[in-house]
Write a structure and sequence with these properties.
The complex is a heterodimer of chains A (about 210) and B (about 200). Chain A is mainly α. Chain A is globular and about 50 Å long. Classes of the chains: A mainly alpha (about 210), B mainly alpha (about 200). At the A-B interface, helix 2, strand 1 and helix 4 of A face helix 7 and helix 9 of B.
Chain lengths: ~210, ~200
């Protein structure tokens, strides 16, 4: 109970600090009730602790995600660098202050992973994550995403991500990301790597990541 | 006159619901158990008046709902009136068999919504209303409202059933349900519910 209380206090502090900052900036300000309503809206699809949710499509975990990455992806949806019909509609009504507030909030959450991946692939996935696949020019994932897959800045956290979501993203990489040739983004880094992974290797690394806390 | 007919239908259904609790208890006998359902839900499970279509509904969803009727978690008036009794003596194996049976029947759309509202309904279904924090229905129910696993198929259900169910979330029924729906649906305005129900009723 005490832990829940202090976590709540932390979230409130983030919200308040953020609202104060937005207020100081003026034009892009967003009120705390507005931010809270939008947070609740995100959670209807992304899970009530931001842990991800399986609807018709797997909806990614946002909890603990790098704030810079969340902001960058929301902007990518708005600018059509990343294709997703639902998320374009969701993102294009967000002003920069709201975007920052959402990123800060979801980045601060830390629920347990949702789970559900087959466990027999974990060892193979761990090996790919830590060592890469030199024969296929696949570098160790850990070199950018970190030894614990917590990510860094624009490099996303992968720990605890839904395995079915990771699989869909990696198999569909160049059809979904980097869609504006005039405005290339960091997604280009992953393109050749995703391309060089086989379906089975993707399944293994996705299963491994989905159980990391 | 209309009220009298409705009362008569109601009475008939109540009797059938009571009869069905006796019949459905014999585990394994799906044919006789399904007859208790088809009195109200139609011979091919296509639904009739207030009883929704079951044909093509998701297996897991039907099982969940039967469980919710039995535990009284699904508590809207018609559920209380008919389905609580109908499921009171329903064993898990019979529930599984019935769910499997109805999920494999081919669904046909009710086509009874308002055509003029269907386009607005389609927009809400696919995109939600981001300005008002209403989520896209398609994200969970699928681009063609086909449903998956525990998430129901909505495409082709009758306008009146969809409208009633969507309105009931906001009226405080079924509060024990899994989180997203009570919150999403209670934010929908009556004209948005009418548009969604119309659009969905025409989906093949």
């Amino acid at each position: 109970m005490k832990v829940v209380g202090s976590r709540l206090a932390l979230h409130m502090a983030i919200l308040i600090a953020f609202c104060a900052a937005a207020h100081a900036q003026g034009k892009d300000a967003v009120s705390q009730p507005e931010l809270q309503a939008k947070i609740d809206y995100c959670k209807t699809c992304h899970g009530f602790s931001g842990q991800g949710y399986r609807g018709f499509y797997p909806m990614p975990r946002l909890a603990g995600q790098q704030t810079e990455y969340i902001e960058n992806q929301l902007n990518a949806f708005i600018e059509r660098r990343r294709q997703n019909p639902v998320m374009f509609n969701v993102a294009h009504v967000l002003n920069p202050a709201m975007l920052k507030g959402l990123a800060a909030y979801f980045g601060s959450l830390n629920p347990k992973p949702l789970g559900g991946a087959p466990k027999e692939l974990l060892a193979a996935g761990k090996k790919i994550y830590e060592e890469g696949i030199p024969a296929s020019d696949v570098p160790p994932c850990a070199s950018c995403h970190g030894p614990e897959a917590k990510g860094d800045g624009q490099f996303p956290r992968l720990a605890g991500q839904l395995h079915d979501y990771i699989m869909r993203k990696l198999t569909n990489w160049d059809k979904e990301r980097g869609q504006d040739p005039k405005n290339p983004d960091a997604s280009a880094i992953m393109e050749p790597i995703a391309h060089n992974l086989t379906e089975k290797q993707i399944a293994a690394v996705a299963a491994y990541l989905s159980y990391l806390e | 006159m209309k009220a009298r007919i409705m009362r008569l239908i109601g009475l008939t259904m109540a009797v059938l619901a009571i009869v069905s609790c006796a019949g459905a208890s014999s585990a394994g006998d799906v044919e006789s158990a399904s007859r208790n359902c088809t009195w109200c839900h139609g011979t091919l499970g296509h639904g009739y008046t207030i009883a929704p279509r079951l044909a093509g509904q998701r297996h897991e969803y039907i099982m969940d709902q039967l469980y919710d009727f039995r535990t009284h978690a699904r508590d809207n008036p018609f559920s209380q009136q008919y389905m609580w009794g109908a499921t009171a003596n329903l064993g898990p194996q019979t529930a599984r068999d019935l769910a499997a049976y109805f999920s494999t029947l081919p669904p046909t759309p009710a086509n009874d919504g308002d055509r003029a509202l269907a386009e607005i309904g389609r927009e809400i279904f696919l995109e939600g209303i981001p300005e008002y924090d209403i989520a896209s229905c398609a994200a969970c129910h699928g681009p063609n409202a086909e449903g998956i696993g525990q998430i129901p198929r909505l495409g082709g259900l009758s306008y009146s059933y969809l409208k009633r169910r969507l309105a009931q979330w906001g009226e405080g029924y079924h509060v024990a349900a899994e989180p997203p729906m009570p919150r999403i649906a209670s934010r929908l305005a009556p004209n948005e519910i009418a548009a969604l129900a119309s659009y969905l009723s025409f989906i093949q």
